[in-house]
Amino acid sequence: MTTNVSHGEHHHSHHFDSAEHEYSSDKEGLWLFMVTEILMFGGLFVAYAIFHSIYPEMFSEGASHLDWRMGFINTLVLITSSLTMALGIFYNQQNQPKKAFWNLIATILLGCCFLVIKYLEYSGKFHHGIYPGRFLDMAVVNPVHQNLGLYFGLYFCMTGLHGIHVVIGMSLIGWVAVRTYKGHFNSHYYTPVEGVGIFWHIVDLIWIFLFPLLYLVG
Amino acid sequence: MFWLSPAHAQTFMPTAASDIAGDVDNLYSFLLISSFISCVILIGGMIYFVYKYRRKSPNDKTPRITHNNFLEFLWSFIPLVIFMVIFAWGWKVYHDMRSMPENGLEIHVTGKQWAWEIQYKSGVTTSNEVVVPIDTDVKLIMTSRDVLHSFYVPSFRIKQDVIPGRYTTLWFNSNKLGEFHIFCTEYCGTSHSGMIGKLRVVTREDYDKWLEQESKFSTLPIAERGAKLFQNKACASCHSVVDSSVRVGPALYQKFGKQQITSAGEVTVDEEYLRESILNPNAKIVKGFNPNIMPSFQGQLNEAELLAIIEYIKGLK
Amino acid sequence: MGTAAHGSNSNVNYLNEFKGIKSWLLSLDHKRIGLMYMISILTFFFVGGIMALLIRYELFAPGKQLLSPDQYNQVMTYHGAMMVFMVIVPGIPAILGNFFLPLQIGAADVAFPKLNLASWYVFMFGAAIAISTFFSTKVDTGWTFYTPYSIKTGTAVVAMVLAAFVMGMSSILTGLNFIVTVHKLRAPGMTMFKVPLFVWAIYSTAILQVIATPVLAITLLLLAAERLFGVGVFDPALGGDPVLFQHFFWFYSHPAVYIMILPAMGIVSELISAFSHKVIFGYKAIAYSSLGIAAVSFIVWGHHMFVSGQSEIAGVLFSFLTMLVGVPTAIKMFNWLATLYRGSVTFYSPMLYALGFLFLFAIGGVTGIMLASMGVDVHFHDTYFVVAHFHYVMVGGTLMALMGGFYYWFPKMFGKMVDDRLARMTFVLIFIGFNVTFFPQFILGAMGMPRRYFDYIAPYESLNKISTMGSWLIASGFLLSLYAMIKALKSGEKAPSNPWGAKTLEWQTSSPPPHFNFDKKPTVTGGPYDY
After folding, report:
1. C266: distance to nearest CA of chain B, Å?
2. What ipTM did this prediction achieve?
3. Which of A201, A11, A182 is closest to A89 using CA atoms?
4. Does residue A135 register a pLDDT over 50?
5. pLDDT band at residue C491 using 50, 70 and 90 as cut-offs
6. CATH number at residue C416
7. Which domain holds residue B295?
8. Looking at residue B128, which CATH number applies to its domain?
9. What is the domain count for chain C?
10. Chain C: residue nearest A48 by CA?
């Protein structure tokens, strides 16, 4: 049944004319997928905007419970990881799989770093009785705004969904790192690395919006 | 406005009992007629063409007509104009529906699973029954206790969702005496279809009389309120209260405190059993009677009313 | 179509080249994947159809017939959810789109065959979750999952919502695959304005799938989070807004309506042209109107909410924009009529279904305009008028076109001819049954009977009885169809490569096509409807 008819180095499937043809198609597919990712988070941003306009005080109270320094460090971590990810693609394009491999590993480690900081933030919140929505411990938190739970509902949904994407991104990077190590990629064929890279940049980009909206704007 | 509306609308639409209902029916008649004409053009044209141009021989040559800008402009533009008329007309009617009267009679409505609670300014409360005077602007201020409901009176052609946590409003001015249905049109669970109320339009005098009676009612001793509810809910048509004769259901005369053999064994007729039998009649059927005869009153009686009825049954000695 | 391509005359084709269950379950061939979708979707359609019969049976008379109110609400929910998420949304694109989109543009496969197979598995996984809820506490929210009822009810809403999420993902992946296929894999010489109109329709649909479905995904995730963690976004008790859910939901679900109907319009364009043996009238107008409908469909969602408590000005905007959707729809109707003009019309079963589509869609369309008119919609909203309207569009439109498409392409898909006399009988049964079932519901709605009602008051009884009897006719029509198709598979005449004398590319290869569709890559010089 199948389909992959290999022509030497470039794996191009039978129904494409050439490797370039396949590459441009893959890339279009990837970008379309990114559009769906952005639209999905878009729904959350719309919910944020609506409730921010209804309860501005609630958002500033919520933001005051967050530590902007943690968020800032995480922003730096992710920006750096975007750089290492880009280098991972670059070295694959340059036929230097070893360098590419170590850059991808660095990206994964930075992703771990992000998650550890996120974990510290979450556990700190839980420790102070800050849970989403109706689970927010009113007695412990003693909020000024009675709907503060809603702010943290949004906070945990937005950062949680983003966190899930970070985990998915890290496993995808792990996968292309292994393939890089095995020497599957070269200057003619690096579509999977580039695809995963685009995904990772989008995940970073979403964080770059989340950070000011949740920690700073308030 | 159209011959169709007075002559036939009655059979297709419920009685129009307000001026706005008349406006809606006029728009509806216009829509019906223009839709009918459009369908005749489209479907009739189709039938005419397929008959006239059916294949005559296997070698029919068909002309190569790819487009015709003038025609295409016409059949985009003409529908657009018609649609804009319909839009503007619909907007006008909608605007009238949404413009609340300044000094209307205000009534509070609370939807809950599965009944409407009505509260008048004077403190009178009723369940599933709205009584209003004729030719008066009435404004309903509505909210819900639990999930979404929707307050719909077909005869007035009005409808508004009832939302927990906020107020929505609705107004009408009825020009016909009579009793009209209130339906819930936003799906709300098990007895969604049983959440039916009635809206009675009465003369001003009857309204005042009714209001006075009802205000007395709320200060009656609870057993007497129970007696009235027992009548209102038509319990008496199945359950005898003056002797032990069996009607559709078992008699309630001198029943309280006695033992009773039921489908679930022997029970004592106490408050708990009566309550259960009103809300969930099939739970313990009295021996000799069939299940699924008595309807459940779940959602039709509030706690105070239940208590009143039970108190009344207690007193049947 | 002026082309040099011809299918092989050998007896090897995509159906018999590989054998065994694995050759199907692991197939990357778009045709086989299309058939796998066909079997699964037809199964779901059968189950959803039984639910419909149960609903109609329960409504045969006032009071309880067979189901308790809770059971009725569950059956009503599963009928809606299955028919929408598991039958009509994926129906035409995943079955016929998968099979014929690459054939019609002269490609050997879709752009991402592995992704295509994965989409089927994702779809089946979602379907399995949805069906599994039926064996736990079931779901009774209606297919729309309106909050706060869906937050409060004690049924398996989370699992159902996740099922819809997973199936949405499959829909996104299919759409994405089709967009890239249309952009990148058209045969040499086939410009965008030489692709068949079915391709245009599937392409517009794919855009909708990719753009609208993510919003449904996040809405459903938020609803699940609401139930699991009580986040409060839709819960008025926590400061959230239950009506926001409706905005989110319809932002997807209104475009979804066009995800359901656009592919049907594509099929009808093919059928009308093929059976009038005449070039389609206003090719560009039809193609652009598909895109136009797709674009405007994103900004009309509020017309589902005229009585929800949204502001008057919002209602006015949405009503106005909804009227605009009527225009491209009217254009299509008139173009189809103009195609019939001076044609050479034959009445094989696919054409009957196409004409049935025009008939029913005309009624569905004009009643849609009535509902878009705010003043009247307040009365009709959430009554049987709406139920009748969307069944005229979804069943009278989409399912009629799907049946027409099946009978039209059956010879190509399986290499066998269907007994057309039998097929025409199925049309008569379904068409009459459909009108008997749903036309009375317009009147019921005008009389004020609300939808999702387990029970009703006495004046509605006689029309409900007629409607229920109609449902039995429809059911017999579909069963007869099943029989006709099974009979054709077993003992149908062998189909020639182009039994209808149509001009699009799929008819240039053998019936059934070989594994890679064309023995020699076709080159296109003319348009798709050069009769």
Report:
1. 17
2. 0.90
3. A201
4. yes
5. very high
6. 1.20.210.10
7. 222-314
8. 2.60.40.420
9. 1
10. C233
